[in-house]
Amino acid sequence: MSKDRSTDVPGSREPAASQTAPARGDESGRGLPADYPGPALLVRADGSVIGANVKGAGLESLLRRGTAPGIIALIDEATARSDVVAGTVSLSVAKGDVVMDITVVPREGDGNLLLLARDLTMERNLRSALVESRQRYKDLVEVSSDFAWEVGPEGTFVFVSPRGALGFRAEDLVEHRPEEFVLDADDYAPLPFLSDHALENVEMWMRRADGSTACVMASSVPLKTEDGTWQGTRGICRDVTEERARETALTRARHREQLLNYIVNTIRDEVEPENMLATAATATARALGAAGCRIYRQREPGTFAMAAEYGVAKGIGGLDDLLARMAGDSGVVEAESGTWQVLATATRYRQTINGAICMWKAVGPDGWDDDNRILIGEVASQLGIANEQIDNHEHIVKLSRTDDMTALLNRRAFFDEELPRRLKRLDRSRQTASLFYVDMDNFKRVNDVHGHQRGDEAIMFVRDLLRKHSRPGDVVARLGGDEFAMWLDGITTVAATKRVETLIAASKGLRRFSGDEDHPLGLSIGVAMYNPGHGEALEELLARADAAMYAVKHAGKGGFRVAPPAGAPGEKPPGQEHRS
């Protein structure tokens, strides 16, 4: 369908040599202002067009087709009143609706009318857009968490978003100075509310209506006259308190994670389980800024034994009461001990308490904070696992080092681990020691006559006998079968001789386990003294003790012999052998 180009309003696209339409009789060009910038038409009272300028060609087309009833109504009114009539009409054209301001002026003498038009479409659209934009801005400000404001030349708020700000109503802020609501306002140079130049994202702390504080991000632009005189400031503020709190919490959580990773990795890097807790105490104290740290292991329910310690412990007391509280308390415990403030909690493995950790620092304003409380709980969880691992390790070590029946050290642990370590210590202390090699006489006869259960009872009797005649720090071992050994640190030859004499005398109690009267059960003991000054090797010491014991066996059993000193002839020194 073709479009009539003459219907485009305003104006016409028809080419013309002048601003008036082609002549229509003698009246076609009369009364049309040649310099009128908009559409101009000369019409009769019935609305028929006499003439039009180029821009009026579109309106002429509409009037000829009868599609401009609004204009006809204005012509009728002007004719009836014989007076100027003006109005606004909406017209539908090919490009859409247009709005025209129409003025109809009756002419004297001929009854015709001059019709002048002005296109208001763009003006109306701009006005609507402006109104819509203002409403949109108003709605966005109203629903946002931000607040807009303006400070006047007097330095007081002259406008605040209707919703108010920071719990204050708008009227509570207007006519007040911004400094009244900014914490430490003098620290800001310049204060965004009073700045004479534009600022963006200035972070500051302000007071809420309830007295709490809020972190606010402010951006502002100054208001100035043409000569540059400051007339105020306008801007917007955004409450970022929750955002900052989340950032702070995240930063603190990351910091705790870094410290915990440092502690855990330090513990895991320790190969020796025996040193694991000492390493943990050191790493924890350093990570948390503590003056000292102790780690405990629970031996029996409610009984804690210190397993590791780091740092200053002078003046620390009352920890036993604290440990007693932890035995039944699942949380973190705080207390003061003299000049120290203590933080402690129990360690657990599978919900069962297996130890505790205590830390302390000097009493002062920088006390234990929430991060410390959280972190010590996380460390305690790791220590609970470490304590369990150490328990398992010790159990395995104990099984590998002890005799199943007697729970004494076995041969490997005694000869390969215990004695070499003790000899090194004696080389430093320069003290003497004694090795007792103990063998049961006629033990096979006990098993043959009375059975192995009776033989086991005899072995347990010897175990108890050796333990009874040893001191704390001495070592008793079962070397296998009916052979035992005992090591006595820091003992002289005279004292060792008295000890073995007492032991031989007490061994008479074994006779009740004998297989028969002709084969009494007893002990043969070889004694070898160790003197670090002689430079004797462990193998040589063992050989001397073993030889002394077999010398007793060959001499009739049931007695002891003290081996000659290292390097001396093998003859029996006078008074060094005794038989029961």
CATH superfamily of the largest domain: Reverse transcriptase/Diguanylate cyclase domain
CATH architecture of the largest domain: 2-Layer Sandwich
The biggest sheet amounts to: 6 strands, mixed
DSSP strand tally: 21
Assign the CATH class of the largest domain. Alpha Beta
Mean of pLDDT: 86
The dominant shape is rod-shaped
Please state the structural category.
alpha+beta
- The total domain count is 4
Major sheet: arrangement of strands: 17-18-16-19-20-21
Alpha carbon gyration radius: 55 Å
Number of helices: 13
Keywords:
about 575 residues; alpha+beta; Beta-Lactamase; 4 domains; 6-stranded mixed sheet; 13 helices; rod-shaped; disordered N terminus
Question: How would you concisely characterize the structure shown here?
Answer:
It contains 13 helices and 21 strands. The chain has helices spanning 57-65, 69-81, 121-143, 170-173, 241-269, 273-288, 319-328, 370-401, 411-429, 443-450, 452-468, 493-506, 538-554; strands spanning 40-43, 49-52, 85-93, 96-106, 113-119, 147-151, 157-160, 199-207, 213-224, 230-239, 292-300, 303-311, 333-337, 340-349, 352-362, 433-441, 475-480, 483-489, 522-530, 559-562, 577-579.
